[in-house]
Design brief:
This protein has twelve helices and four strands, in the order H-H-H-H-H-E-E-H-E-E-H-H-H-H-H-H. By secondary structure, it is of the alpha+beta class. It folds into three domains: 86 residues, no CATH class; 119 residues, Rossmann fold (3-Layer(aba) Sandwich), CATH 3.40.50; 33 residues.
Length: 295
Amino acid sequence: MTDMASWFKERPLWLQDTARRLIQNTEVTPSDLDELVKLCKEEAADTVKPDRQAEVGSIPEHLLDQVDMQTPVRLNAIKDATGINALAPRKPLEFGSEPLAIIYGSTGSGKSGYMRLMKHVCGARAAGQLYGDVFAASLQNQSCTIRYTLGTQEHRVQWTPATGTVADLQSVAIYDTGCAHVYIDDEHEVTYEPPVLGLLRRLVAVCGEVDQILQGQIVSKPSALAKWPAEYAETDSQRWSERVSSSTSSQEIKARCAWSDHDDEALTSLNQRLAETDPAAKAKALRSTKMHLGA
């Protein structure tokens, strides 16, 4: 993933931060979007503080390595599930040692609850809502213990909904009726999508959401520039004023907006004419004076 890491290092900070959030949590939340929009605007205005820049800088390569996992990973067991559906296992749900494990049982045995739980843990599609235990006497915090093997080393994670997707388990494939609707019934879904392409697809989607938010903010703020009179429309000065931006140099603005003594005299004369209470009478008097002087 060295090439991917190098590519991300050349991208804007807010895009790197977006990728980091997607790798760690699979999706971005509304609060994530607000922070990304804020970072995008700060970066455009070159006002990102050094500590903030260090916080959201280049994505650690170990996170990118997790996207395209080469090390073998195996989900071993789920135990001590509490507050999730009506799951109350007396012993762990073991997945065995074979490449494929099938969960089966009678109606109400907890198959759907375990599937939803695994989808949230592994970041699978069509995860659905993780319901609480409606039969419990009091509200319980949702949690469970996950055992898995990465390479040759076994890991144990105390999981809660706040944990989100366990990065090491993103390559675990989960299939049930809900996934069937995603992979088979929906003609627009890709049947198999490599993890790296999945990351890039989600990254493009988030970029579109950020763009929509920024466009909405732009539209909601009317321009502070004065409207040009109709007679000056499509003039060189009018077209230039519409191109003025934060990148316009002070030298260019000074050259375009220079004010000479001649301009000052013309403005004074115009103000005097506009201040005249009876222009017609004044013009008549001036013509009379001109006629007497000519005689």
